[in-house]
Design a protein that fits this description.
The complex is a heterodimer of chains A (about 40) and B (about 475). Chain A is α+β, with helices and mostly antiparallel strands and about 40 residues long. In chain A, about 25% of the residues lie in helices and about 35% in strands. In chain A, strand 1, helix 1 and strand 2 form a beta-alpha-beta unit. In chain B, the strands form two sheets. In chain B, strands 1, 2, 3, 8, 9, 10, 11, 12, 13, 14 and 15 form an eleven-stranded mixed sheet that branches. The chains are: A alpha+beta (about 40), B alpha/beta (about 475). Chains A and B meet through helix 1 and strand 2 of A and helix 15 of B.
Chain lengths: ~40, ~475
């Protein structure tokens, strides 16, 4: 269902980091066009 | 707990925590300065929601910061804290103080060695502000101050009055712009205030300080040396530590704990008899979440510059001390998930001392005030960190899943620090920890800080540092 979709992954410092989200979604067939980890404090 | 002869104990001579209330500088915080340029209505909204100094003093989290209320006491106080102000609150605390904007402007001018700061003479004289050192502030009539601002200097306001101007030091170098130098000088002044306050409290002569480490976050330097640093030495000079040298230790929000470990190592190795660890406030972070606060009709709560100073020395029998042999770091190979962070910074660090997660009476994590962060959707940061530690204790079979809330309640605390990055990162609790250790309320406390290295775009890594403090 998600295969071929483009995705922007925004990770959070105290949650899931951007590269981890990108790794999971990339493995599921999505195209990660941008990933970043941010700190919201 | 292991008490082997290899235990490395470093004394904590004292701590000082200060908040400088600068409502009229909130507009120069990174977020407000960008957003108000794009939307002028926001500037008006911001101006209407700034707090007075008495309101900032009577704000319960600030009273916790300077030591007049314990973190445990704060959890019992009615919310919202910004409405339920503490009656009769004092700007002087058990281990610190709150400084008002007028005093700050005077200190800014007095610590300026490059004619960056000009104060409006009538405004200055009318207030009879006490000078913090022998350097005389540069005073000019209003028309001249206004002319400086017209030529590009940053106006320094006091309410709706023009109180001064802050000039750039170079026409082309962005690193010496008024904006950057104001940030840097603010860090120097607030850091120096905390170190000076601590020395007075300890009745210690500035000349007796051996070494100063600054863990302030500002990038001091010109275009060829951006971030070149050694704000520590500038602070040492400002305070009169004439026999000290110093250096900066930086690791984003983890900087203060690294600075503590480095300072303790200098003492353990015999290089220094004592080390002052100091940090000034972060002007760029003022008003970081002001839009959320305005939307919720709250006062703009990020209106203070935080600073602190700690003096480390030889451990004294029966006094609380830092266990240098407990120090732990987040290694490159570790990855950045919260679980891995907790494993390396808490579990593995404690294992070195043959301790479990449940052997720690109190954890100090990133103690951001949730009243500031929750309205913006950033959540309750300390609680998230405590739940991660509790979950790890469940995974290791040290507590039951049903005991997680008890773990958080007993070993954690509510956040009370302003969102000043390095300031809330565990170090803010050291004063209360020393009190609780001396009073026998706790036997030990673990300090854990994390750093968001990825923000600098040099690596995707996070970082972290931790250590244990225990009773004598």
């Amino acid at each position: 269902m998600l295969e071929g979709k483009k995705v922007i992954a925004i990770g959070e410092r105290d949650g899931v980091p951007g590269p981890v989200i990108a790794e999971c979604l990339g493995g599921a067939g999505l195209e990660v066009v941008f990933q970043v980890t941010e700190c919201f404090v | 707990m292991s008490d082997s002869s290899k235990a490395m104990r470093i004394g904590v001579e004292g701590v000082f925590y200060s908040l400088t209330h600068v409502p009229d500088l909130v507009r120069y915080g990174s977020k407000p300065s960008r957003e108000t340029k794009a939307n002028h209505n926001l500037a008006e909204g911001l101006a209407k929601k700034l707090r007075s100094f008495p309101e900032a003093v009577a704000y319960a989290p600030h009273q916790v910061y300077i030591g007049n209320i314990t973190p445990q006491g704060l959890s019992g106080l009615p919310k919202p804290w910004y409405e339920k102000l503490i009656e009769g609150a004092s700007a002087q605390g058990r281990f610190g103080d709150l400084v008002d904007e007028e005093q700050f402007y005077s200190s800014l001018a007095a610590s300026d060695q490059f004619e960056l700061v000009t104060l409006e003479e009538k405004w200055f004289q009318d207030r009879g502000i006490k000078q913090t050192n022998a350097r005389v502030p540069r005073l000019r009539p209003l028309a001249e101050v206004q002319a400086l601002c017209d030529r590009g200097a940053f106006p320094l306001y006091s309410g709706n009055k023009l109180a001064g101007a802050f000039e750039a030091a170079h026409a082309e170098d962005a690193n010496l712009s008024a904006e950057v130098l104001l940030e840097n000088l603010a860090a120097k002044v607030t850091g120096a205030h905390s170190l000076s306050g601590l020395l007075k409290q300890l009745q210690m002569k500035p000349a007796d300080v051996d070494y100063v480490i600054s863990c302030s976050e500002e990038a001091v330097g010109d275009r060829y040396n951006r971030g070149g640093g050694n704000l520590a030495k500038a602070i040492a000079e400002e305070v009169g530590c004439e026999n000290a040298s110093g250096s900066d230790t930086k690791a984003f929000c983890a900087g203060p704990l690294y600075a503590m470990v480095h300072g303790a190592s200098l003492i353990q190795s015999g290089v220094c008899r004592n080390v002052a660890v100091v940090a000034g406030g972060s002007l760029a972070k003022l008003g970081m979440k002001f839009e959320s606060h305005l939307k919720k009709n709250m006062p703009v709560l990020e209106d203070v510059l935080g600073s602190f100073a700690v003096i480390l020395g030889a451990a004294k029998p029966s006094a609380p001390h830092m266990r240098l042999d407990s120090a732990a770091f987040h290694p490159v190979r570790a990855g950045a998930s919260p679980q891995v962070m907790a494993e390396f910074l808490a579990e593995k660090a404690l294992a070195k001392l043959e301790m479990k997660l449940t052997d720690v009476d109190r954890y100090a994590v990133e103690l951001h005030n949730p009243e500031i962060t929750v309205p913006s959707g950033s959540g309750d940061v300390p609680r998230t960190n405590y739940l991660t530690l509790a979950a790890l204790a469940v995974m290791r079979g040290q507590i039951q899943k049903s005991q997680m809330e008890d773990f958080v309640r007993a070993r954690g605390m509510i956040g009370y620090a302003p969102t000043q990055g390095h300031i809330p990162s565990a170090i803010v609790y050291l004063g209360h920890a020393l009190d609780a250790l001396r009073d026998g309320k706790i036997s030990n406390a673990m300090f854990i800080a994390k750093g968001s290295l990825f923000l600098g775009r040099m690596t995707q890594l996070s970082d972290g540092c931790s250590f244990l403090v225990e009773k004598g």
